[in-house]
Structures
1.
Amino acid sequence: MITHAMVLAAGLGLRMRPITLTTPKPLVSVAGRTMLDRALDHLGRAGIDNLVVNTHWLPDAIKEHLAGRGEVRLSHEDVLLETGGGVAKALPLLGHAPFFVANSDIIWTDGATPALERLAHAWVDADMDALLLLQPVKTAVGYDGKGDFFINANDTLRRRGEADSAPLLFSGVQILHPRLFEGAPEGKFSLNVLYDRALAKGRLHGLVHDGNWYHVGTPEALPRVEALLRAEER
């Protein structure tokens, strides 16, 4: 059973300006619920009671917002550490077993079985250092990239590489094991550095999401995502 989780909430949200000049992107409300609360709600339903949220931009706003959610520990970054550095800094708060990590700048909704439950069920400790939830590009709302991964028959992953496109993108939801961070760089770095190490060892795995996924990248994208979410949540 996974008991710890981290939500990444330290980003600057530059593409969401001017909204994020005064409101950190995780606290932007989409269809009546902040993106940070939506991620924490998923984790709460999964029974996770050891929660860590990292902060950098407008940290006091996030701290005040979380004051009403029970015990959530904050990992503040005076200097933005990116995804890998942010998780590495918070490792002392995340225990010694696999833990969830979720981005707070995306929104996902579940299929028949909650995505976090599916991830936990799919985790094989002997074989995996990281298990990524993947979204089919063709059903991703608000995404205009070329995809990130191909998935092999044994659920290990391959990068898009030189291909024109790949069918799956990283959703921003995952399970990581602390051993993934052994020998990790100091300070600021991307989780992609560690994914590539795990991939080379055949220990980067994926699970395809069977629900919906939304990326809110700009203020102009908000109305469309809100309309789709409200229709889905009726």
Note: The domain at 4-233 is CATH 3.90.550.10 (Spore Coat Polysaccharide Biosynthesis Protein SpsA; Chain A).
2.
Amino acid sequence: MTELHDLTVLVVGAGRGLGRGIATAFARSGADVIALARDGASLAALADTHPAVRTHVADASDAATARRVLGEYRPDAVIVVAGATPVMRGLTQHSWETFSVNWDADVKIAFTWAREALLQPLAPGSRVIIISSGAALNGSPLSGGYAGSKATQRFIAQYAHMESERAGMSVTFTTVMPRMTPAGDVGLAGIRAYAHQAGLTEDAFIEQLEPVITPELAGQAMIDLMTLDTADSAAGYLLTGAGLAPLT
């Protein structure tokens, strides 16, 4: 495990799934970890396992929370994992309210933290990593506006990076797009829906995804990305069970 004792890492959406795996990996590496999520019980369980982790129960989409937390901790890295579980159904079975769930959550969260990181601004050399989804590249016809919202998260990171460069801030914005995985509510919802559509059991569908992304693998991938020189960092990465692959 890479030792990161001088690093302060804020994980937004650390209560479950990949976010919890990322927070755990950085805590084990010796980094100073701030874990933010809406679910207080899940954060308490994380802190029981890793007492040095500092927790914040808050709505990740709230700009005042983002402003306050960034100003208080001045993190070296902000990793944004939070988002909503999409409603899984065909297009004609959606209402606009169900179709737009991830626009109102995921896009707003990415916009909020990217904007506040620029307005602070974070210290030169800081990084903001937005966890999007492989659906941003391939689509996801049973999850309403989910794929489009995740593609927009990628654009937000790109726009923020351009503003950082123009202003000479030296704050790096990167997008990571994980492939579908059973290691979280979003992936499980997708697996159930697409397995049913294909006439497969969930286990059989998951076998098609192997090697699958685990929370531990996601955590190590973020550590690998954080220890990579910014000059060698890509604007976006696909994350699979084999690890990170830069997007061109």
Note: Strands lie at 8-12, 32-37, 54-57, 77-80, 127-131, 172-178, 236-240, 243-246.
3.
Amino acid sequence: MRTNSQPRTYEDIIRHSVTSLLMTIGLIIVLTVSVTLTVDQLLRAQNQAQQLSTSLQTTQVSNFKDWLMVNKGSGLNSQNTFVLVKNAKGETTSLLPHTAALAKANTWSVPFTHLVYIKGWGLYFSETLKTSSQTYFLFIGMHVLVGNLHVLIAVLIIAIGLSLLIGLLYVRRLAKRLSAPTIALANAAQQAAATPELTQPELPQPQEPVEVAQLARDFNQLLTAQNGRLERERQFISDASHELRTPIATIRGNIKLIERRGDKHPEVIPESIGFIDQESLRMQHLIENLLHLSRADRATITLQPLDLAELITSVVNHYQPLISQPITLAVPDHPALALGNVDMLHQVLTALLDNAHKYSPADQPIQVTVTQRPGLVSLTVGDNGPGIPKAERAHVFERFYRVDASRSTKIEGNGLGLAIVSQLVKLNEGHITITDNQPHGALFTVTLKDAKEN
């Protein structure tokens, strides 16, 4: 049954990799040198065997004295070079007395080579030479090759062992140096995760390794975004609590007033009920706007081509009777096709008209314009109110934000309308900007994709 292995540390991974690498390199070196040395010795033995064969063919050695002369001329070591002679009758003799047992010893041939292993004698290079009357069996000893291989393998084993020892010590030091930034980053992340309700500090960002530095930068970007969301949630909760506290306090105050004075002063009851109705309606609008924001945050829509000029004309015609300010409408004569959602864009325009109505004087017009540019279709709603300072424009789409806090009780609203507009525009893959209107006031411009080119 297969079991899951334990997760490995930097040191384990590097040590295993370095050990495998050194062992592989050592094995390759041993094999390469051994094969090279063996081939070299075999070629030398083959060359010597050819020289000896030529001498044997010339001299027709048949006795020990002739063999000594031939062997001396070949330069071979007489202690490692032997010749067995087989005559025409099939009788085998040796030219050295102590090699008589050579013909009777068990032998094993190495495939694809002239090497044979003779039990009790060792490894030899074997060559057979046939003449008219005799057959010579040459055996050239490979004792030097075997000895050299033994020494070579012993030296390489010692060298590889020392390399592994030094390598493991180096790996331990290297692993600690490489893992230190990662461990510091992990510890900082654990501390941040332990207090998710607090604003998270930036994680330490090492200079190297580059991969860990990039990971730390990515984490810090994530933390920055998370901190921003956390701060917005805190502000949202604080603002929502503040907005709900006032109507609730008003409702409870009027209920207490009715309880205390309703029997003796019934005239206070209608007035108190009117305040309760007004504040409950305000709470209802606030809760509806919060629901709109919640749905917009989670909504996914499919954009479709629509005639923005036709949609805007319809909305303005229905909205004009509800307000005192005149609305001037400027749309192209031809269809202005944009990609969007009809219901959401209807809500966007209504919210912008509500905002312009609240901040514009009763006798000043509200301008609504639809324009086209290459690849884009724009909707602009302009008012002639007090305008919005440039420093405030980056915040007007935040939830519960009011430009003039001193006028927040005089002008209806809870600061959620433009936040909803911004979210709906994003869902329609557009963007909204604020500029100055002339001679005074603000222009809200919603830019959408042109359906013809998308």
Note: Residues 302-449 form a domain with the Heat Shock Protein 90 fold (CATH 3.30.565.10).
